[in-house]
Amino acid sequence: MNWLGSLQQLGRAIMLPTMVLPAAAILLSVGSLPWVDWGLPAIAEVSTWAGQGIFFFLPYLFAVGVAWGLANQAGPAGLAALSGMFIYEQILRHLGDGSVQPTTLIGIIFGIIAGVLYNRFKYIKFPEIFQFFGGSRFVLLAMGLFSAIFSWFMIGIAPFLQRGLDELTILVTHLGGFGLFLYGMLYRILTAFGLHHLLNNVFWFQLGNFTTPDGNVIQGDLPRYFAGDPTAGTFMAGLFPIMMFAIPGIALAIIHEAREDLKPKIKKTFLTAALVCFFTGVSEQIEFAFLFVAPYMYMVHVVLSGIAMWITYALGIHHGFSYSAGAIDYVLNFHLSENAWMLIPIGMIYGVIYYKLFRWAIHRFQIPTPGREEGSTLEDWAGNIPYQAPLILEALGGKENIVQVESCITRLRITVKNDRLIDSNSLKLLGSAGLIKLGGGNVQIVFGTYSELIREEVNKLMQRDLPQVLFSAPMQGRMLPIEEVPDHIFAAKLVGDGVAFIPERDELVSPVYGTIIHLYPTMHAIGISTPEGLEVLLHIGIDTSQLKGGYFQAVVKEGDSVVPGQLLIKFDLAYIRQHAKSLATPMVITNPERVKSWSFAPFKAVKKGQASVMSVVLHDRNAGGFEL
Q1: What is the mean pLDDT of the chain?
Q2: Among 195, 357, 385, 408, the one annotated catalytic
Q3: Around Cβ 401, how many Cβ atoms within 10 Å?
Q4: DSSP class of 368
Q5: Which CDD domains match (predicted)?
Q6: Which among 37, 185, 216, 218 is most buried, taking Cβ atoms within 10 Å?
Q7: Which CATH class is domain 470-618?
């Protein structure tokens, strides 16, 4: 599976340059307005040329973007790729016959070479007299030499590569609707792995040629569409019914099949996700809600997506987008389309089919979609990201386990040293809709459209050495705010601040690294001092100090060192449930003046020893415990 991890990195890098395309679409759309009739012809000219300029220099943008993405946002790699493209363009202009022009494929190749060279040689050292050419400067030197040789070589082989792309175009054309059907299915399958950008780059930016009135040769379904090619838009049109109607139909089915007590939150979350998908074409939040729990339904989704592509081809519909097949692109680019009005009735029919089919399947097969069981519902992250980022980092195995953190529109794309250290259950409770392990430590985590903000916060934590303490769950059960404990002393935080748990099993484990500093005679409560000087009190149940008779059995003693997840106390859960005031088990820090800030995971079900339920940042780095 390591090759999938490498493709993930390449797919992420290739996606980056496409983020400029919405600007091109908006500019071209503005330029198409009747400014001449309004007496403002200059606006039409500026907007049109600005939009066309982005497409004209798209190969250069791909070169820089791919290199920048593969080299972990390193500027020298992007500069090396750009210099390579300049060399390539000059050699072809003066030594070629004019039949070969820079393309996005060439830009991607230069981006890959520059990224690989930077990652391999950024720390290279030479003897002192030559060290000026060492480090990242060597990448620029090597890329210049490589580009000259590669460009000379391309003069000879480029016609054969172009012939291969032409043959692929002819093959797809001969396949007709069936070819579009296969493309639509493959696109949806690769979306699950985050690799659809690789497929799309071929069909959207490589296949087909169109010569503009001024003599420029445009390649790819997407650039040709915006250049005015009437035959373009076939590989994009069929996505509009799926993004604007079908997938939002799935969201409505999930809402209507949710439990009544969870329906308000599910409605808020998935109605928002449906609107995001309708307007922008970002669909993964909804798709990942059933991908893992009902993969057979995802395959139905795959087939229906392929059929949508076939239908739009058969009806002669041509429509395109700059970013994705949402309503915004549908309206912006409608003036360039052909028969695009038919996408609306097709989409409405698809929406009804998807809604009826998925609602029936969820009910018939008891599919545990969000709202039918406790778990992630893709929480509203706005405002909570800085506080929950430390918990996400801990769920990823800590910053020592992180090699690289990147993101795309809806998912984190992470490389870790050991993917077995990732706590998938914690990530789910923290808002993740899905986790995909691609091998070689490459992992994708779907967090929705806030993924980029999460990446920024996680990277900030990676770069700062904060004095913080991370807490695991001390028992299996449900976590609740300390204010909800049915005891005034704990609820008012007179003992300390923290959280509480309602146990479902009869074991209490250590939530932190530390030393046992106090074990009550009845063994219903225990105190731990962490190396950072925090004092943690764990109190099993409320008013349990009077329960005598061996209902609590400690397996540790004062002075013992403990680690997260280590068993501390076993207790008679059934007896305590019957005789105690409450099972609520507070986990509080009794010297909260040491704490600068607090972070809490969502108050939901947790597993024993589960990482990332609470995190605190300390005021200072003083170590050593305090006596209770």
Answers
A1: 84
A2: 408
A3: 18
A4: -
A5: PTS_IIB_glc
A6: 218
A7: mainly beta
Bridge partners of residue 615, in order along the sequence: 470, 599
Lowest mean pLDDT among 234-243, 373-382, 471-480, 611-620: 373-382
Residue spans per domain, the chain: 3-176, 238-365, 379-465, 470-618
- Taking the C-alpha atoms of residue 175 and residue 149, their distance in angstroms, rounded to an integer, is 38
CB 240 within 8 A of CB 343: yes
Bigger pLDDT: 93 vs 99: 93
Task: Give pLDDT tens digits for 418-430.
Answer: 888 888 877 877 7
User: Can you tell me the distance from the alpha carbon of 206 to that of 219, in angstroms, rounded to the nearest whole number?
Assistant: 5
Say if CB 248 and CB 347 are below 8 A apart: no
pLDDT number for residue 450:
72
CB-CB contact of 585 with 571 (8 Å): no
Indicate the burial class of 467 (C-beta count within 10 angstroms; 0-12, 13-18, 19 or more): middle
pLDDT bucket at 432, cuts 50 / 70 / 90: confident
Check: CB of residue 305 under 8 Å from CB of residue 354: no
CA distance to 391, 562, 580, 599, per residue, from 533 (Å): 20, 15, 32, 18
User: Do 207 and 169 touch, CB atoms closer than 8 A?
Assistant: yes
The 3-state DSSP class for residue 628 equals coil
Q: What is the CA radius of gyration of the chain?
A: 29
pTM for this model (two decimals):
0.65
277 is catalytic: no
Write down the CATH superfamily of domain 379-465: Glucose permease domain IIB (3.30.1360.60)
Between CA 134 and CA 124 the distance in angstroms is 6
